[in-house]
Amino acid sequence: MTFPIHLGKIVAAALEEDLGRGDITTDACVPADARGRCVFRARSPLVSAGGAILAEVFGQIAPGTVFVSDLVPDGSALAAGAIMARVQGPARCLLKGERVALNFVQRLCGTATLTRRYVDALPPGSRTRITDTRKTTPGLRALERLAVRAGGGHNHREDLSSAVLIKDNHVAAAGGITAAIRRCRDQAPHTSRIECEVDSLAQFEEALAAKADIVLLDNFDDAQVEHAVAINQGRAILEASGGITLERVTRLAEIGVDVISVGALTHSAPAVDIGLDWEESP
User: Fold this and answer.
1) Which amino acids are annotated catalytic?
2) Which of 40, 171, 198, 275 has a CB 3.0–4.6 Å from the CB of 203, allowing a cystine?
3) Domain boundaries, the chain
4) H-type helices in the chain, by residue range?
């Protein structure tokens, strides 16, 4: 998976946070010339993500002296006990990067693993997309979005400048759905679709009449979603969001929504259990 250059800044900030004033324990008890080899091992079933971040951590701590090998591709399903990567080099460097590397991959693998569960809940052959939202950890959006893709999901808009999405507070401030859509249509580039969030079937019909390209059905129950699909008749892309549980995914896809957006993929994914085990002691 592509590793954008700016993600190196995220790793640098994490290392500064943990290692900025040094590691008094490692420097005190581990000889400077000691070397070792260790493995990142899954301690529970997971979907891998963040391998490039792991390599970046050690690359920044000790450029050219710590070597990462046997790194599994992002998106790989790993059983408990499987090796995600090997690292070898100066023992002090391995120890200094251990926690930062684990923090990243445990979190990102957690997001990828949860995303895969949602994707796997789609009916066979379904064209419905599972996407994330902007409910991401401040500063870590780029990494979490990589993890969602590793799990087989898709990304929603990157940021506020990348797409038009009229939310309920925009509607309130603009004086209604029709006015908000009309103004966005007048101002947005011709290449930009107009998406509008609605929280009732009456608002849905208004958004359709105003020719929204995409309508986000916010906290609709299954019966309301089914009604909206019947009214829509393919006129707008339909996105279901809010109150999306794993148990609802199959039914929503069967009803016929185009997109199911799930904030939990990034704001509530539990970190998975990954350990760093020594294969060769210093």
Assistant:
1) 99, 135, 167, 197, 218
2) 198
3) 7-119+269-280, 122-267
4) 7-19, 24-29, 51-61, 91-120, 141-150, 168-174, 177-187, 201-209, 222-232, 246-255, 264-267
Looking at the whole model, is its pTM more than 0.90?
A: yes
The answer to whether the CB of 10 falls within 8 A of the CB of 139 is yes
CATH number for the 122-267 domain, one of 3.40.50.1820, 3.20.20.80, 3.30.310.250, 3.20.20.70? 3.20.20.70
| Per-residue pLDDT reduced to its tens digit, 74-131 | 999 999 999 999 999 999 999 999 999 999 999 999 999 999 999 999 999 999 999 9
Q: How far is CA 123 from CA 22, 128, 245, 249, 256, in A?
A: 51, 9, 15, 9, 11
- Residue 72, Cβ neighbours under 10 Å: how many? 16
